[in-house]
Specification:
Layout: H1 4-11, H2 33-48, H3 64-87, H4 98-103, H5 116-124, H6 136-141, E1 148-153, E2 161-166, H7 171-179
Antiparallel strand pairs: 1-2
């Protein structure tokens, strides 16, 4: 890579040497860079698995079963960390068109800028549908305010009366659950 592509890659925070056995005629110069950039997301996810993001306590891996269980738990956490933000992209201050902006770059090593849609969200301070935008972490806290209460009472009409109270979701919660295709009343 020469010229503007080399200057752009110098501005990125990480340097990687990517080797391939294909000739330049068979492979565009940017083709090996794109999958490597995608792999960086996986690396970052595994780095954060057991740190602040998930608050996972240390597990003592003294048997093969525990090692397998720990890897499975990490994969489940990564799956949640990947799929939920993907489905919730219309709600927070995320750029939904970032992949299109990255594909339009002349050199894959350069950082993609914001799309027009992301700039509009930033200016209006509103997500799609006029809802106030959140971050992924605040969305994880927001559904926790839903309540499913079961009250048992003894009255003179019935010896054991059961009253179930389900709090109605807010407009933000309703939109978030709709994007996940979840009915909060049915998962209790």
């Amino acid at each position: 890579m020469t010229g503007a592509g080399a200057r752009a890659s110098r501005q990125s925070e990480d340097w990687y040497l990517i080797r391939t056995n294909l000739s330049a005629a068979e492979l565009d110069g940017n083709a090996p860079v794109r999958p490597t950039k995608a792999w960086l997301h996986v690396e970052r996810a595994f780095r954060s698995m057991k740190t602040v993001d998930f608050n996972v306590r240390p597990v003592f891996l003294y048997s093969e079963d525990r090692v397998g269980a720990d890897v499975f738990r990490c994969m489940l956490a990564h799956s949640l960390d990947w799929h939920m933000p993907e489905r919730w992209k219309p709600l927070p201050f995320d750029d939904e068109k970032i992949d299109e902006a990255s594909a339009a770059l002349a050199y894959a090593a350069t950082k993609a800028g914001c799309s027009e849609q992301a700039r509009d969200k930033d200016k209006s301070k509103r997500a799609d549908g006029g809802l106030p935008p959140h971050t992924f972490r605040t969305f994880l806290k927001d559904p926790g305010t839903l309540a499913y209460n079961i009250n048992h009472s003894h009255t003179h009409f019935s010896a054991n009366t059961k009253i179930v109270l389900i709090r109605r979701p807010t407009s933000i919660q309703a939109k978030a659950f709709a994007l996940l295709a979840i009915n909060p009343a049915c998962i209790q």
